[in-house]
């Protein structure tokens, strides 16, 4: 893919056009921009054109990432009849994504996801390659080489890897490896023996975070890093006399949102100093932190996400939408239809505000999800959100019209992975793979 033109020849009896007998079929791929040693980023051009005619398909793109998208589309155009013969119809496609950020959040904190489960999620095409991956059965940790392997596996498929290191809350596991990082909770005037969020009152916390973020910069090539900032319980901070003394010294009074703001502002500034862009959960905005203007806010709260989109873009921040796509939540019936009702730019605001919505993210939180049920929970339900984030809004708004596409794609997934998506889309039907 690093040259100007590649040609693939599918031999006789492999592929047949609707208008001819079986014959060789040539796929030509032309990439305008040389080089494929880099990583996909927020400015990557993923557009492509694809022309399928008698005996050949011609794919043209500006970048290697667009070529990857085009090859995926080409693979989905090929279909098989009841006798095992493959066909492809004549077609002309001009395609590009609606949003640059189309994310899938994998929660590796609540239930450890083995490396092979992560790689399988990234790779629809060759799952057997990732099945040979392994993880340490006792430590259940990711080494730096594991992370690099995931990043490279993703890069070869045009996928960005954005890490989230959520703090100051959700950090109990951090405390086990970093004594003094978490706030000691008190019962009356004595420590209770339990610990709360990261302790934002001591210098050692910020030295640790600076060291962590420097390693993140070294390992993760993407320009974004997610800093979390959500669901912080203030009870432990309130119980700790040293924290209360720090609050008084800083003039925060009894407003612990100001203490969280102090902490988050500090680590966002560290991230900026490393030439990384912070993503944070909307809580950080809600607490009125002095947020760098290039910070990306991610909306996760409530059903009225349109009001949140309006409020945050009015402040000039770029925004990601996640709230309506928490697919770790499951229900009886065709809950995939809800994904097609989501309209990320349908809110009260100017055209300039709507341009600040850079995409969305499907969230697969891990309270009740591990490697055994990750794939069936994800697929094909995540495909609905993926189509909404890639394709023209008007053409993907109708769930009834989307159903045949999603049904066929589910069958394609079953053809490749066999068991991966045992979630059925409707009350009846059959997939012959």
TrEMBL record:
Glycoside hydrolase family 20 catalytic domain ranges (all copies): 125-392
Keywords carried by this UniProt record: Disulfide bond, Glycoprotein, Glycosidase, Hydrolase, Lipid metabolism, Lysosome, Signal, Zymogen
List of catalytic residues: 231
Molecular function terms, GO-annotated: beta-N-acetylhexosaminidase activity
Domain Beta-hexosaminidase eukaryotic type N-terminal intervals: 29-77
Cell location: Lysosome
Reactions catalysed according to its record: a ganglioside GM2 (d18:1(4E)) + H2O = a ganglioside GM3 (d18:1(4E)) + N-acetyl-beta-D-galactosamine; beta-D-GalNAc-(1->4)-alpha-L-IdoA-(1->3)-beta-D-GalNAc-4-sulfate-(1->4)-alpha-L-IdoA-(1->3)-D-GalNAc-4-sulfate + H2O = alpha-L-IdoA-(1->3)-beta-D-GalNAc-4-sulfate-(1->4)-alpha-L-IdoA-(1->3)-D-GalNAc-4-sulfate + N-acetyl-D-galactosamine; N-acetyl-beta-D-galactosaminyl-(1->4)-beta-D-3-sulfogalactosyl-(1->4)-beta-D-glucosyl-(1<->1')-ceramide + H2O = a beta-D-3-sulfogalactosyl-(1->4)-beta-D-glucosyl-(1<->1')-ceramide + N-acetyl-beta-D-galactosamine; Hydrolysis of terminal non-reducing N-acetyl-D-hexosamine residues in N-acetyl-beta-D-hexosaminides
Family annotation (InterPro entries): Beta_hexosaminidase_sua/sub (IPR025705), GH (IPR017853), Glyco_hydro_20_cat (IPR015883), Hex-like_dom2 (IPR029018), HEX_eukaryotic_N (IPR029019)
Predominant location: other
GO terms of biological process kind: carbohydrate metabolic process; ganglioside catabolic process; glycosaminoglycan metabolic process
Family matches, as Gene3D superfamilies: Chitobiase/beta-hexosaminidase domain 2-like, Glycosidases
EC number assigned by the record: 3.2.1.52
Task of the protein: Hydrolyzes the non-reducing end N-acetyl-D-hexosamine and/or sulfated N-acetyl-D-hexosamine of glycoconjugates, such as the oligosaccharide moieties from proteins and neutral glycolipids, or from certain mucopolysaccharides. The isozyme S is as active as the isozyme A on the anionic bis-sulfated glycans, the chondroitin-6-sulfate trisaccharide (C6S-3), and the dermatan sulfate pentasaccharide, and the sulfated glycosphingolipid SM2. The isozyme B does not hydrolyze each of these substrates, however hydrolyzes efficiently neutral oligosaccharide.
The family this protein is said to belong to: Belongs to the glycosyl hydrolase 20 family.
UniProt cross-references to PANTHER family, sorted A to Z: BETA-HEXOSAMINIDASE (PTHR22600), BETA-HEXOSAMINIDASE SUBUNIT ALPHA (PTHR22600:SF39)
The protein's name: Beta-hexosaminidase subunit alpha
Organism: Cyprinus carpio (Common carp)
């Amino acid at each position: 893919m690093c040259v100007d033109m590649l040609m693939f020849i599918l031999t006789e009896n492999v592929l047949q056009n609707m208008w001819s007998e079986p014959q060789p079929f040539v796929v030509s791929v032309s990439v305008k921009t040389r080089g494929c040693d880099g990583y996909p980023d927020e400015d990557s051009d993923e557009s492509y054109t694809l022309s399928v005619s008698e005996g050949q398909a011609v794919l043209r793109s500006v970048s290697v990432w667009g070529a990857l998208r085009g090859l995926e589309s080409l693979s989905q155009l090929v279909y098989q009849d009841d006798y095992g013969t493959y066909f492809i119809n004549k077609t002309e496609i001009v395609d590009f994504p609606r949003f640059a950020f189309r994310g899938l959040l994998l929660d590796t904190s609540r239930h450890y996801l083995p490396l092979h489960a992560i790689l399988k999620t990234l790779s629809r095409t060759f799952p057997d390659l990732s099945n040979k991956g392994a993880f340490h059965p006792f430590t259940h940790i990711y080494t730096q080489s594991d992370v690099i392997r995931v990043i490279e596996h993703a890069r070869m498929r045009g996928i960005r890897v954005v890490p989230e290191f959520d703090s100051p809350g959700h950090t109990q596991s951090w405390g086990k490896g970093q004594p003094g990082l978490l706030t000691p909770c008190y019962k009356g005037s004595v420590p209770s023996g339990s610990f709360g969020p990261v302790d934002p009152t001591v210098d050692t916390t910020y030295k640790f975070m600076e060291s962590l973020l420097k390693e993140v910069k070294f390992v993760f090539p993407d320009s974004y890093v997610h800093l979390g900032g959500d669901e912080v319980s203030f009870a432990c901070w309130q119980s700790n006399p040293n924290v209360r003394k720090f609050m008084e010294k800083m003039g925060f009074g009894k407003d612990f949102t100001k203490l969280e703001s102090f902490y988050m502002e500090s680590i966002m500034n560290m991230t900026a100093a490393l030439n990384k862009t912070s993503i944070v959960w909307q809580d950080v905005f809600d607490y009125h932190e002095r947020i760098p203007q290039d910070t990306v806010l991610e909306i996760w709260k409530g059903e009225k996400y349109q009001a949140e989109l309006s409020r945050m873009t009015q402040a000039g921040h770029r925004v990601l939408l996640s709230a309506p796509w928490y697919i770790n939540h499951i229900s009886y019936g065709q809950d995939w239809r809800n994904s097609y009702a989501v309209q990320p730019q349908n809110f009260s605001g100017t055209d300039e505000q709507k341009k600040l919505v850079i995409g969305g993210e499907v969230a697969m939180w891990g309270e009740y999800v591990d490697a055994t049920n990750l794939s069936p929970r994800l697929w094909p339900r995540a495909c609905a959100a993926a189509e909404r984030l890639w394709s023209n809004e008007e053409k993907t708004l109708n769930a009834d019209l989307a159903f045949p596409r999603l049904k066929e794609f589910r069958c394609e997934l079953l053809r490749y992975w066999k068991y991966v998506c045992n979630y059925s889309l409707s009350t009846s039907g059959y997939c012959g793979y």
